[in-house]
């Protein structure tokens, strides 16, 4: 289907005007998508005087690592000058348990809803669907009150609970769709062999859930790492994730703006999801398709 | 073998955490939010009843009106922009080109990053004093002027532009999968009939991929309603209140301006609006299909 207008022509027509236009568009588009990353990188290696005199697209005339050091260990958010490293640690502390727990809960839900037809299953499903689509603003204030009633507001466990709550819809749909494709006969056979709810889950379902576990992990790791809103509201001052720290550093109103430090901190924040993206490759795309929660 | 009822019991038990979340964190919070929106609460909730007073105040508030207008501008620009750019990239990538994997990776990487990162990068590139404008002056084009991010009437378009940069790759990935699923025979048939390629795309391929388009539009629409981070990072709602959006309105009034009744009224409006638009689609997508299968 490469070039349906001329089906009988020579096989690869390298240089027809159409092909040139095709590649020109792709290269132009690629440049557009890469440009901001390029600007980030070159800015982060420049000195402030050079930034003020030169232009954002030029390569640094003298490479300096100072902005990176400052961004990591000395950049200020208000009166705190400990750099973004605190946020990195917090983000990991939030992301690891949240990812694990939300996937576990989603897998159990998906399994129970697919095979056990529990009472109220449809209600759970309807609420979760709604939860996946409705703006978070509706839940925020009562959730703050509920969490403070149980002394979880502004704590590390509190922000983890919030991520588990709001990760549940997509995770459940993901596993429900995956288990829906598993033959019911397999489940029936396991039950005839005397398998109970948990035995079938741990011995039959989980071992065959490899691909969907990878997809779920990619979705949750990037999603939770990139979260800003929940971290801002629920994490509390001692556990602010990296995204919130980054925004505080960049949009701090005190002192002169150090654009090179800001860009170094921005790259550092983008690093984890970018590594996940480049390592996971096609799996990331599968995650998108799955995250699209098709019925 | 244990009797069936007992088995079901353990399934029910396993769903207890889920039920707690569904009842408290989802249904309970929504009802609570709606309840507060009918009170005169300020910093702390007061459980009186003032009818639709907060809603009237909301729609008299210039800030809310601007937020809704911005959401519409951003939404149309973002969805149309992502669809057009994403579709073009998908079609061009589907022409057996060299280095497809590299192009695909480049087009999609912004989507892996946070909206905060996207907002900060574009705020820096579009910085009126040191960004593109400065670079152009530096290259000798001294009359070049591009300060949209600092102009109240233009800044929201720049936010939309940055949003497109972030999410066009998502549409590309979804539509490319759709294009790959189209039967080779359709292309052969079109070739035999001598139908021009563009015509095949418009009259046959796009209608065949309507499901993919709907998926993409729904995903983008969810992002539109939730839009918050990118505005905070890029403009902070400014200049003035010119790039405020509803999600930010709610957060600001909840946590900074201490008017929770007005904030919850705004949140309730968002909730109802999304429910009205998405409800029928969700029902058709999931529950009707369910019945057909059963």
UniProtKB/TrEMBL annotation, chain A:
Domain of life: Bacteria
The ABC transmembrane type-1 domain, residue ranges: 88-280
UniProt entry keywords in alphabetical sequence: Membrane, Transmembrane, Transmembrane helix, Transport
GO biological process: transmembrane transport
Family as reported in the entry's similarity comment: Belongs to the binding-protein-dependent transport system permease family.
Family matches, as SUPFAM superfamilies: MetI-like
GO CC field: plasma membrane
Identification of the protein by name: Sugar ABC transporter permease
Xref: Gene3D superfamilies: MetI-like (1.10.3720.10)
PROSITE patterns (alphabetical): ABC_TM1
Topology relative to the membrane: Multi-pass membrane protein
Primary location recorded for the protein, binned into one broad class: membrane
Localisation: Cell membrane
Record field: transmembrane: 20-39, 94-116, 123-144, 156-175, 196-219, 263-285
UniProtKB/TrEMBL annotation, chain B:
Subcellular location: Cell membrane
Regions annotated as coiled coil: none
GO biological process: one example: transmembrane transport
InterPro entries: ABC_transporter_permease, MetI-like, MetI-like_sf
Lipid bilayer topology: Multi-pass membrane protein
Domain ABC transmembrane type-1, first and last residues per copy: 68-279
Pfam name, any one: BPD_transp_1
Swiss-Prot/TrEMBL keywords: Cell membrane, Membrane, Transmembrane, Transmembrane helix, Transport
Record-linked PROSITE patterns: ABC_TM1
Residues spanning the membrane: 12-34, 71-93, 105-125, 155-179, 200-225, 260-283
Cellular component per GO, a single term: plasma membrane
Family: Belongs to the binding-protein-dependent transport system permease family.
Name assigned to this protein: Sugar ABC transporter permease
Source lineage: Bacteria, Pseudomonadati, Pseudomonadota, Alphaproteobacteria, Rhodobacterales
